[in-house]
Amino acid sequence: MADRPNTRDVFKRDDGWAVTKPGAERASAVLPTQAEAVARAKEILANDGGGELRVRGKNGQVREQNTVPPGSDPKKSKG
Protein backbone atom coordinates (compact mmCIF):
# COMPACT_ATOMS: atom_id res chain seq x y z
CA MET A 1 0.00 0.00 0.00
CA ALA A 2 2.97 2.36 0.39
CA ASP A 3 3.12 2.66 -3.40
CA ARG A 4 -0.46 3.94 -3.64
CA PRO A 5 -1.05 7.66 -3.18
CA ASN A 6 -3.24 8.74 -0.30
CA THR A 7 -6.53 9.68 -1.97
CA ARG A 8 -10.05 10.74 -0.95
CA ASP A 9 -13.07 11.16 -3.22
CA VAL A 10 -16.02 13.50 -2.64
CA PHE A 11 -19.25 12.71 -4.44
CA LYS A 12 -23.03 13.20 -4.17
CA ARG A 13 -25.19 10.45 -2.67
CA ASP A 14 -28.90 10.40 -1.84
CA ASP A 15 -28.12 11.14 1.82
CA GLY A 16 -25.59 13.94 1.21
CA TRP A 17 -21.98 14.41 0.09
CA ALA A 18 -19.72 11.46 0.88
CA VAL A 19 -15.99 11.40 1.59
CA THR A 20 -14.52 8.02 0.70
CA LYS A 21 -11.15 6.33 0.44
CA PRO A 22 -10.82 4.13 -2.66
CA GLY A 23 -11.33 0.49 -1.73
CA ALA A 24 -13.06 1.25 1.58
CA GLU A 25 -16.44 -0.30 2.29
CA ARG A 26 -17.87 2.72 4.11
CA ALA A 27 -17.67 6.47 3.72
CA SER A 28 -15.34 8.34 6.08
CA ALA A 29 -18.00 11.04 6.37
CA VAL A 30 -21.34 12.06 4.87
CA LEU A 31 -22.16 15.76 5.10
CA PRO A 32 -25.06 17.91 3.94
CA THR A 33 -23.07 20.16 1.56
CA GLN A 34 -20.29 19.71 -0.94
CA ALA A 35 -18.25 22.48 0.72
CA GLU A 36 -18.42 20.71 4.09
CA ALA A 37 -17.42 17.39 2.51
CA VAL A 38 -14.45 18.96 0.69
CA ALA A 39 -13.31 20.66 3.92
CA ARG A 40 -13.56 17.37 5.85
CA ALA A 41 -11.69 15.48 3.12
CA LYS A 42 -8.90 18.07 3.28
CA GLU A 43 -8.71 17.64 7.07
CA ILE A 44 -8.52 13.86 6.76
CA LEU A 45 -5.80 14.03 4.11
CA ALA A 46 -3.76 16.63 6.01
CA ASN A 47 -3.91 14.54 9.19
CA ASP A 48 -2.86 11.46 7.21
CA GLY A 49 0.27 12.99 5.67
CA GLY A 50 -1.29 14.73 2.67
CA GLY A 51 -2.55 13.34 -0.62
CA GLU A 52 -4.95 13.80 -3.51
CA LEU A 53 -8.53 15.07 -3.21
CA ARG A 54 -10.87 14.29 -6.11
CA VAL A 55 -14.32 15.87 -6.43
CA ARG A 56 -16.58 13.82 -8.70
CA GLY A 57 -19.55 15.05 -10.71
CA LYS A 58 -22.93 13.34 -10.96
CA ASN A 59 -21.62 11.21 -13.84
CA GLY A 60 -18.77 9.89 -11.66
CA GLN A 61 -16.06 11.67 -13.63
CA VAL A 62 -13.42 13.65 -11.74
CA ARG A 63 -14.20 17.33 -12.26
CA GLU A 64 -11.72 18.78 -9.79
CA GLN A 65 -8.50 17.46 -8.25
CA ASN A 66 -6.29 19.05 -5.59
CA THR A 67 -3.13 18.07 -3.76
CA VAL A 68 -3.37 18.50 0.00
CA PRO A 69 -0.07 18.99 1.87
CA PRO A 70 0.66 17.33 5.22
CA GLY A 71 -1.18 19.03 8.08
CA SER A 72 1.62 19.18 10.59
CA ASP A 73 5.14 20.24 9.78
CA PRO A 74 7.50 17.91 11.66
CA LYS A 75 10.31 20.47 11.37
CA LYS A 76 10.02 23.04 14.14
CA SER A 77 11.71 26.09 12.64
CA LYS A 78 11.13 29.80 13.08
CA GLY A 79 9.70 31.71 10.15
Report what the structure shows.
This protein has 79 residues and is α+β, with helices and mostly antiparallel strands. Helices cover 18% and strands 35% of the residues. The protein is built from 1 helix and 5 strands. It has one helix at residues 34-47; strands at residues 7-13, 16-20, 29-31, 51-56, 62-68. The chain has a 5-stranded mixed β-sheet, with helices on one face. The longest helix is centred in the middle third of the chain and has 14 residues, at 34-47. It is globular. The model has no long low-confidence stretch (mean pLDDT 88).
List keywords for this structure.
79 residues, alpha+beta, five-stranded mixed β-sheet, 1 helix, 5 strands
Write a concise synopsis of the structure shown.
By secondary structure, the protein is an alpha+beta fold.
- Which descriptor suits the 3D outline? globular
Q: What strand order characterises the main sheet?
A: 3-2-1-4-5
Radius of gyration of CA atoms, rounded to a whole number: 13 Å
Mean pLDDT: 88
Helical element count?
1
Summing up helix and strand content along with how strands pair, one would put the structural category as alpha+beta
**Proportion of residues in extended strands:** 35-45%
Main sheet attributes: strand count, strand direction, barrel closure: 5 strands, mixed
N-to-C span? 35 Å
The number of strands is: 5
**Poorly predicted ranges:** none
Helix content: 10-25%
